[in-house]
Amino acid sequence: MQQILLSESYNRYQKRNHNVGIQIWHFEWCTKYRYKMFLQQKLKIFCEVAIKECCSRNNFEILALNVQPNHVHLVVSLPRGMTDIKALQLIKGFTSFLLFRLVPDFRKRYRKGKFWSKGSFSSTVGFTELESVVEYVKNQDIHHSH
After folding, report:
1. Could you state, in order of their start, the residue ranges of all structural domains in the chain?
2. What tens digit of pLDDT does each residue of 14-39 get?
3. Domain 21-143: which CATH class?
4. How far apart are CA 65 and CA 87, in angstroms?
5. Could you tell me the pTM of the whole model?
6. Which of 2, 1, 6 is nearest to 137 (CA)?
7. Quick check: 81 and 60 in contact, CB under 8 A?
8. Which one of 46, 108, 110, 122 has the lowest number of neighbouring Cβ atoms within 10 Å?
């Protein structure tokens, strides 16, 4: 089951002292070894909650979120000046930290405490393509059902 969160402000520029702009990113990252850790609904919900909490703490606005059995898609608006690399470090680090505390059995599979793979995908998203990227994230269940 996918979770899609569309914000009313997703097509507005962020206005701050002396600067105006927005940066919207599409992120995708995988569990280490592509293990299908989120087949259980409980674990999938834990992951979604951890991502939402991290984004809330760092002032990231979630536009779309979809947790698949072995990877995550996220469309997010980042504060000006935040790099995609830093945002992914924060999200992956916080979610890994929280998941290991919520589910101690993860240590049986991930003995070294590394839950996410090193790699990731990130791409900027403009207003003209935002709707199609959100639909792509929304339809991941269909995309991976083959």
Report:
1. 21-143
2. 777 788 888 999 999 999 999 999 99
3. alpha beta
4. 15
5. 0.86
6. 2
7. no
8. 108
